[in-house]
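We include this case.
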Amino acid sequence: MTSTTGSRLRAWQAAALAAYRNASASDFLVTATPGAGKTAYALTVATELLQRRAVDRVIVVAPTDHLRNQWAEAAHRYGIQLDPTLTNAVGPVRPDLHGYVTTYAQVAAKPAIHEARTRAKRSLVILDEIHHAGDGLSWGEAVATAFDTAQRRLALTGTPFRTRPDERIPFVRYEDAGADGLASVADYTYGYRQALADGVVRPVVFAAYTGVSRWTNSAGEVVSASLSGQTTKGVEARAWRTALNPSGKWIPHVIAAMDERITHLRATTMPDAAGLVLASDQDDARAYADIVERITGSKPALILSDDRAASKKLARFTTSDERFAVCVRMISEGVDVPRAACLAWMTSYRTPLFFAQAVGRVVR
């Protein structure tokens, strides 16, 4: 096994590692801005614990199947061999491996088998983007059942998160956030401002494209509203639904501006710069992909969760010269695409957590 601690660590990773050593706790939560290097940090912790024989097994829980492969590939570079394909139908972990990578959905489907694997050896469980343990009604309970016997649990998240009192995520400390419920409390925090000052992430420039939406209401009246004006929430929502309609004029306008920006980046500082288009649903994503091809003359990567080849397409896009990728949520969290430089927010998702994670794709 190859150690990667020391000079190869970023300053925040070294500080977080020192904090982890000093805490010597069963549970440790790190909140680090997207793109800061949480995976490298976690694998450094895993390497050290394995070398000290504090643990004998490493289990990673990730939000998506694509991230299973990404984690396994990253772990391999640290000399840690993890199986990203282990299913619930298979019992023990292969003896020649250090552990495996699973998903929150897989744990929720059969927590007992993951509990048995955790109990079989002294285990470090890395809970990537741990807020996903609250995605399903019983997911948090399943995670608690599966990993309660782990020797160590290292939880990671890109942004602080809030939870209702009756939906606490296991292995996380909280503080009262008043009407907003409970707020997660990290043992180490590394925010975007610090990362930007350290040169770890790129600065983000928000380009707002305004306009006027017009639609016909249920009474047959033509209604119009500015996308940037003050109005009621209902009118604002309808105005944006109209703007995001693939048959309108707003989407092609924004795509053209995005294509121009990518061309500029490729000609100046980033020869492989790419753009990500986030859609509200798969129908819109397919329509947006057609618009991208019509406007730019190049076919984008269309990456949808119901496509069995989605992970392969995503992996190919990461290293290819394709200018655009269109998706719904598959590129919004955890996925590492360093050449992604532009993001078109064409989705109706409005949660702060999703927004922060999506923006994190273009700061790496």
User: Anything to note?
Assistant: Residues 250-268 form the longest helix (19 residues). The chain has a mean pLDDT of 89. The chain has three domains: 11-197, 210-243, 245-362. The domain at 11-197 is CATH 3.40.50.300 (Rossmann fold).
